[in-house]
Amino acid sequence: MDSKGCKLLIKCGGCGKDLSHIKVFPYYHQCGYRTFADGTSEKREIPVNAPPNILQKGINYAKAWIKWKRAGKPKRYPNEIRKLRRICAACKYIDEDGVCTHRECGCSVSKAGIFGDKLKWKTEECPIGNWPEELIIRIKEE
Hints:
By secondary structure, the protein is mainly alpha-helical. 20% of the residues lie in helices and 6% in strands.
């Protein structure tokens, strides 16, 4: 509401969608813009190597799980998993907690994560291609 009690029309500066119903600002819209309560918007600058947020991690995990399930749930041997952990430990995307910060990953590579250990899934591969081909099963994506 403005000073006269009229409802403000707030639109996203990127796509023009009406955001007047939004109660909490700044609002981060899917088009890549951030809109403020006064109606101004700005393009969000996301660093190229920004780690995935919790939503993106969930999406990455769900895609990986579906691919793994469709392939018949093939698993790696413990010695293969140890080899992958060593490779990951030397990667520039691994943070101090042993989590991959690459946008297409986000997995805990130092130990099993909350939902399990994706390194055990033979359909999984490194998003930047650091893993040996013989440790990966590729399936056709639908």
